[in-house]
Amino acid sequence: MIFETRCAGCDKPGAAICTTCRFALLGATPRNQEHGVIAAVPFTGRARSVVLGLKYRNRRAVGRHLAGLIVNRLVAERAHHGIDVVTWAPTSARRRRERGFDQGELLARAVARQLGIPCRRLLERDSSTTQTGRSRAERLDAAPGFVVRPGVAGRSVLIVDDVVTTGSTLLSAAGALEGGGACTRLAAVASTPASRSASVLPFRKRMVSSAA
Ligand SMILES: [Zn+2]
Predict the structure, then answer these.
(1) Strands laid side by side in the 85-88 sheet
(2) How many angstroms does the Cα of residue 45 sit away from the middle of ligand 1?
(3) What span, in angstroms and rounded, lies between the C-alpha atoms of 46 and 20?
(4) How many angstroms separate the CA atoms of 179 and 210, rounded?
(5) How many helices and strands (H and E) does the chain possess?
(6) pTM of the complete model beyond 0.85
(7) How far apart are CA 128 and CA 33, in angstroms?
(8) CB burial class (10 A; 0-12, 13-18, 19+) of residue 174?
(9) Measured in angstroms, how far is the CA atom of residue 106 from the centroid of ligand 1?
């Protein structure tokens, strides 16, 4: 069987991401950043195709490229300094089984390599907050819970994900790490356009109180 390399964005045979799609991913900054997650590109058009392509084909090459977009954005925002360790918000065991890998982990490892800092698994899914059996609306409301591994106190942690919508997953992961005494910074490849129905959660520890 021959595995032909095709572009994750447009399906053209050749590179894992063709030159046209590569350029289409540059320079577009997502507008919706109320959730405080630093996102490299909007989750629309070719960027959306490439991010979805990460699931299905050439995931190492595509992952490296998408991680590079995150790193470029972090550097542009001067947000790459002072990070001790990179981690991810683990996907559910079921989704991991379906895909055979965890996209967040793949991206976190590639980002860490490019930044020259370690990547560690610092979070586990809290199995008491399983999503199974809930309605779609309930699932959208309920962010997954995470349990933090010991030893994060005083560390500055970058949490990496593929797509941010409401930010609830990343904020839930950040809450767990901050509960363990870490500082957090959140980054994603892509951000969905602002949705009126999406509730944006406030930051916990980092929120500055205006009730002075
Ligand atoms: Zn392409």
Answers:
(1) 38-42, 183-191, 156-164, 85-88
(2) 11
(3) 9
(4) 22
(5) 7, 6
(6) no
(7) 30
(8) buried
(9) 21
Ligand 1 center–CA 39 separation, angstroms: 21
Cα of 40 to ligand 1 centre, how many Å?
18
Backbone angles phi, psi at 164, to 5 degrees: -110, 130
Q: How far is the CA of 27 from the centre of ligand 1 (A)?
A: 16
In the chain the domains, ranked by start, together with CATH numbers, are 19-191 (3.40.50)
Q: What is the pLDDT of residues 136-163, one digit of tens each?
A: 555 555 678 999 999 999 999 999 999 9
Q: What is the chain's alpha carbon radius of gyration, rounded to the nearest angstrom?
A: 17
Residue 1 makes CB contacts below 8 A (sequence gap 6+) with none
pLDDT in tens, 8-51: 888 899 888 899 888 888 866 766 566 789 999 888 888 888 88
Residue 117 CA to residue 98 CA, distance in Å, equals 30
What distance in angstroms lies between residue 174's CA and the mean position of ligand 1's atoms? 34
Distance 44 CA to ligand 1 centre (A): 14
Look at residue 113 and tell me whether its pLDDT is greater than 80.
yes
**How far out from the chain centre does Cα 63 lie?**
12
Per the structure block, which two tokens stand in for 72? 């470029």
Q: How far is the CA of 103 from the centre of ligand 1 (A)?
A: 20
